[in-house]
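Question (not urgent): is this output format expected?
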Amino acid sequence: MRPSPTEFDRQYTEQRRSIELARRYLEKEGVSRMYDALSKEVERGRLSVQDASGAIRFGLLAVIERVAERVGHTHYVDMLKDEEMLNALRSTLDDICRRKGVDTYEFRQQWAHTNLQAVLRDWHLVVHEERGRQRYEVAADLARRLVKETPGTVLAETLKLPADAFVLLVSPEAGLVGLGPDGTPAPVTEIYAVESPAPEGKAWFLWLSMRDAGNRAARALINVYLQDGKTLDDAIAFTREQGGPQQDAGWEDCCRLLAGVARHRPRVGPCVRSGTTPRRASSTRSWRRRRSRRRRTGRSCASACAPSARDAPWCWRSPRAEGSRGVRGLRAYSARGAGRCITDTGSGAGCASRAVCSRCFGSGRSTTRATRS
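Got this back:
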């Protein structure tokens, strides 16, 4: 069984018709004339109102795809500085003012902020698609431990996410809460993260997706600047100060959760479109030698990688795992829905579902697939 649909699936995969239409008119008419051309097609009866509205909705996304391909998909600031992107934002704002019949400074400022939020959201979708739709799923008990036990004194330069773009699926039982559609608390179920280069450090661009009991969606877009020489607490405090009192405070726990994942999950490197991690032949041979040695000695994956739990900081020990095969902690999915488990276990407990420890998976040496959920 494939994983449940994510917000990305709803806003990108299920909207491919509208996205393809936006790409076609962008290529044919250009940025400045695209919206007028779509309106004329509706007047002439060549295009339905629904199709034209969908193409207009994803017009900026089509521009983002083209600009990001040129400047780098994870380089958000460079993308905003690109001349084509600036022209697209100006054209979109002029089109809104013309359709609304209002062209005041306050109106333009309000819609300029709205457009930038839409650009950031669409950029997340583009990067997630281009980076192989990598998914990780963290168990609720492990998520609570990571939020609680991740020290705020950890240096920013030591925090490296497992990949430069992925979504972390979180169970509602993990206790991460944000503001729902009507302003009431709602559980955070998906965290989209992009690690982008920034002056003297890096930035984490976060999209927090919430759904309330009525299955209504809400989102929060947070940009966390991690400056070299500063700590995680410094980064959170700076982001809180920049966001002001109106921001959703639930993002801080999400940031600590990602920091915990970054500390205990080695980086897997960029993924190809199929969602698989490239492996060199030498890595494959090394993994086969370790697998053969484990079969001869009867040792588990984690104990074969490290002589003791002290040498295996990437592994977790859970009281429930003592004397058992371990419990699942972090599961990774490729674009095609195949799952691998990173187990919440120590070196003596073994790996559940024939999965491997995070060190093996992080280096791209594992081909063992866990049972899908």
